[in-house]
Design brief:
This protein is α+β, with helices and mostly antiparallel strands and 130 residues long. The protein has one domain: 2-Layer Sandwich (YaeB-like fold). It has four helices and six strands. It has a six-stranded mixed β-sheet with strand order 2-3-4-5-1-6.
């Protein structure tokens, strides 16, 4: 079996300690959570080889995972990791500009201070709600 292309996937952690993507995922019905985590597993496995329809590049280093109407925004960090910075339920054709600006802001924060990320454990996060 092939090795994962990414060594880790991380949640962005705000200065207030909140993990907005983790909280978004946990707010979803279990079936949607399972789909989102399947996409995250694929991201870890494929890295930057993951393409449409599962993922897409937006701009300024920001990508999106596309499980159904959910959008999980991320960027690649230190060559072999990804950081999940924002998530929304997509309701319009285009991603709202405010959401993209927030993604870019969080990307800059995470790159400047690595304390703003927390490793996502793909086995544990599916089973525990913290």
């Amino acid at each position: 079996m092939d090795e994962d292309r990414l060594s880790g996937v991380y949640y962005f952690v705000g200065t207030d300690g909140n993990k907005p993507v983790k909280e978004f995922i946990y707010s979803l019905p279990l079936k949607e959570q399972t789909k989102v985590y399947a996409y995250i597993r694929e991201l870890k496995r494929e890295g930057n080889r993951l393409h449409r329809s599962m993922a897409d590049y937006l701009r300024d280093g920001i990508y999106e995972l596309r499980p159904k109407s959910n959008r999980i925004f991320y960027f690649f960090y230190l060559r072999d990791s990804a950081v999940l910075v924002h998530a929304i339920k997509k309701k319009t054709e285009k991603i709202p500009e405010n959401d993209l600006r927030l993604c870019i802001k969080r990307k800059i924060e995470a790159e400047e201070e690595s304390g703003h990320i927390e490793k996502l454990e793909l086995g544990g996060d599916l089973n525990e709600k913290s």
